[in-house]
Amino acid sequence: MLRPIRLMTLAPGHFHAALVQQQMLPGVHPRAYIYAPLGDDLFEHLARVAGFNGRATDPTGWELDVRAGANYFARFLQEQPGNAVVIAGRNAAKIELILAAVRSGLHVLADKPWVIDPADFPKLAEVFHEADTREVVAWDVMTERFEATSLLQRALARDPDVFGTAVPGTPDAPGLELESVHYLKKTVAGAPLRRPVWWFNEAVAGHALADVGTHLADLAMWLLFPDQSIDYRRDISVLGATAWPLLLDRGQFSALTGRADFPPELAGAVANGSLKYHGNGTVTYTLRGVHVRLTTLWEYEREGSAGGPGQTDTHEAVARGSLASVAVRPVPVEGSGSRPELFVTPTDPADHTKVAAAVARRCRTDCRGAIVTDGGDHTRVTIPDALRPGHEAHFASVLKDFVRYFYAPRQIPAWERGNLLAKYYVTTQAVALARLGG
C-alpha cells in the first residue's frame, strides 16, 4: 500500500495556499500541518480552509495542526511531520523556502513566482540539483494550462490544417501576444479578498512581470512548442521591457487591506497621496525565432461590477499562423463581466471554408460539445459552461498532477524542467530591463 501524502503548508501568505485544499484527493491524508508566523496571513488561510470544511456542497474534512509562532521555521526544519510542502506566500523569500524544503528531503508544491529578481535565478538550478540528489519532486502551480480555452487553443495551434506554422512576426507585430488583466478587488472562495499589505511592496511581492508574467511565459512555450524542451541560453533572446504603475488612493488601499492609511513600509511608493502599485508591464522576446509579447495589467476593479462576479480576471492570447490566427479573447457576458472565447481567422480570406471545416473536425476530437459557428470572416468556438470548471477548480487539477508525480517522479516530462528555467529567465530579465527603462 502506498504511503499517504501528508501536506505541510509553510508560511501561507497568498490565497492560492488554501485553494490547493479546495478538494480532498485519494492518497492525501486529511491531516495537514501549518507552520507560520502568528498573524493576519495565517488567520486568512485558516478561514478559507474552514470555509471549505463548512460549505454545504461537497465539504472537505481537513484536520489542521497549526504550529505558529516566531520560531515556526526552525520548528518546521526540526519536526517535519509531513512529507510534502505547499508554499504560496511572500515571493521574495519563496526560493529560500523551496530550497530548504528539498534539502530536507521533502516534495514541494510551490506557487508562482519562484523567483522575482535576476540575482535569484541561479537558485532554480540549485533546487533541481537538491531535488535530484534526494529523489523528491519540486512542482510549480501552473493553473492556466487547465483553462478550457487555453487547452483548445493549444490543440488548434498544433493542427497544421487549422494553424499552418507559426509566423515569426516582428517586435511591433509579434507572432504570439499574451495579455492578462487582473483586478485587485475580487471575490475568492465566495468571500471578498483581503489583500495583505506586503502585496503592495515590490521588494516583497515582486513586479507583476515576474509574478503573473510567469503564467504568460509558460503558456508561450506550451502553446507554440508543446512537449518540447526550451533552452533559455539558446532559444530565447529578450529584446525589451517596460513597466508603469497603477495609482491607488487611500480609500482604495483601505478597501483592499482594511488599513486606514498607507503604512510606513510603503512610504517610498507613495507620492501626492497615491500609492504606486507595481502592476503593469510588457516584455518582448524571441522564442526559437518567433517574436512574443507578454503584457501584465492590474486594475483596481472592473468598471460597473461593484464587487460582483464581473471582477473575474481576463486573458487574451493571439497566436498567428501561416494559415490562420487562433485567438482567445474576453467576450462580455451580461451580468457577469466576461468570459474567454476562441476565434480562428484565416490569413487568406479565401481559406475560410477550409479552415472552418478543420476547426470543426478538431473540436469533435479535442472538445466534444463545443459550438462552432461561422462569423463570416472568422470561425467562433464557444465552449459550454459544463466544460469550464473555473479558475479556482484548476488548483485541484494541479494537486492531482502533484500526487501522481509524488508517487512516480520519473513520469515528469523531460521538457518541464528546461521550460521552468526558461520562463523565469524571461520574467527576471524583463524585470531587469524594465528597471533600466526598457
UniProtKB/TrEMBL annotation:
Whose protein is this, by species? Fimbriiglobus ruber
What the entry lists under InterPro entries is as follows: NAD(P)-bd_dom_sf (IPR036291), Oxidoreduct_C (IPR032459)
Task: Report the protein name in the record.
Answer: Putative oxidoreductase
Give the top-rank taxon of the lineage listed in the UniProt record for this protein: Bacteria
Limits of the Putative oxidoreductase C-terminal domain: 152-434
User: Sorted alphabetically, which SUPFAM superfamilies does this protein's record hold?
Assistant: NAD(P)-binding Rossmann-fold domains
